[in-house]
Design brief:
With 352 residues, the chain is of the alpha+beta class. It has one domain. The protein has four helices and 15 strands. Strands 3, 6, 7, 8, 9, 10, 13, 14 and 15 form a nine-stranded antiparallel β-sheet that branches.
Length: 352
């Protein structure tokens, strides 16, 4: 009995500490295989601690090499100022009567990913899983004080594809609040080049009924999301305009039923998006999830092209860039895939 309990504990440690993982399409989670993997690993607590410390030292060493980046002053001087470009943003059709409303997604999911849970170190004000230079953020903390916000700490995301709808469930470390100014969203990369093509986002949903209230869909008409090097940090460029075209706004747009949101009816720490399958086309896509209570600026994507590493700060203990500064209160995931077989070289792809 003691041995069985030990194996279960070992499995839980492995699952909780996985920074990112993705499932094979149409393949449900196999607990037996996970247990066997945990047993095969024979991971002791001491070995795990050594691995965590090694990862921390590697990240801190990488951040220490950012000294060549010029720190251009007070981070508070750069503020998001999202203004859709009049020459690019079409006049949205007024919201019309809804013709299609999402239903209940089937329980069997098509793919999923997990993200680092920062709640374990919340009381001491640091975390792991952040890779600023690669556009992967684990920053559910306030700037400077490092106060933890579990309602923007993504821990798991499920995706289910149906004939009409694609359903995405985002799970957080803590239950959704009754009120808040955070934004939750999905970023879709349709041509798998590292540049996001669509950003679907919503404010905090208030009901477990499907609604378009607060839901917006942006696209990047001029292809500058990601700057010169998609996903990777570039020299800050104020000329970038990120997602500058609003194509759907709470039912206004060519398709009044394009995207919906609701609180998960069965899970208090989760919200669900539903968007039309027509949005992504037949060739497959990559996707990631976002939770943002900081900048909340579609025109600032990718965020690591807006600030030097020094200005952004770091959540890693011992880093010369600690604590978090200009880029705070944000969490996103690595990218999973659907509808194609990845080569393994796709930018942002979750590790196997």
């Amino acid at each position: 009995m003691t041995r069985k309990i030990g194996l279960v504990c070992m499995l839980l440690i492995i699952i909780l500490l996985a920074a990112c993982s993705s499932a094979v399409e149409n393949r449900p989670i196999n607990l037996d295989e996970a247990v066997q993997a945990g047993v095969m690993a024979t991971l002791t607590k001491e070995a795990w601690l050594e691995g965590v410390e090694s990862a921390r030292k590697t990240a801190v060493a990488a951040e220490s090499q950012t000294g060549d980046d010029e720190d251009d002053g007070d981070s508070s001087s750069i503020l998001p100022t999202f203004t859709p470009q009049p020459s690019l943003t079409p006049t949205l059709k007024p919201a019309a009567e809804h013709l299609q409303v999402p239903g209940k997604p089937k329980e069997k999911i098509d793919t999923y990913l997990t993200d680092f849970n920062s709640i374990d170190n919340a009381d001491v004000g640091f975390t792991y899983g952040d890779n600023y230079k690669a556009n992967i953020y684990e920053r559910p903390f306030t700037a400077e004080e490092m106060d933890y916000r579990g309602v923007i700490d993504i821990i798991r995301v499920n995706l289910k594809v149906s004939t009409t709808w694609i359903y995405v469930s985002i799970f957080l470390a803590e239950d959704l609040p009754e009120i808040g100014e955070m934004k939750y969203g999905l970023e879709l990369d349709l041509d798998v080049n590292g540049r996001g093509d669509y950003l679907i986002q919503s404010g905090l949903p208030l009901s477990s009924d499907w609604s378009v209230a607060g839901v917006q869909v942006y696209t990047d008409a001029d292809g500058d999301v990601g700057g010169e090097s998609p996903m990777f940090m570039d020299t800050p460029d104020p000329e970038l305009n990120g997602y500058e075209v609003l194509v759907f706004d709470a039912g206004a747009g060519d398709d009044p039923d394009l995207a919906w949101v609701r609180r998960h009816p069965d899970e208090p720490n989760s919200l669900q998006f539903a968007f039309k399958y027509d949005l992504i086309g037949p060739t497959g896509f990559m996707w990631s999830a976002w939770a943002d209570e900081g900048l909340r600026a579609p025109d600032y994507f990718d965020y690591n092209d807006r600030f030097t590493a020094e200005r952004a700060g770091s959540p890693y203990p011992g880093s010369p860039l600690y604590p978090i500064k200009a880029l705070d209160l944000v969490d996103n995931t690595c990218r999973s895939y659907y509808g194609f077989t990845p080569s393994g070289n796709e930018l942002g792809l979750c590790p196997p």
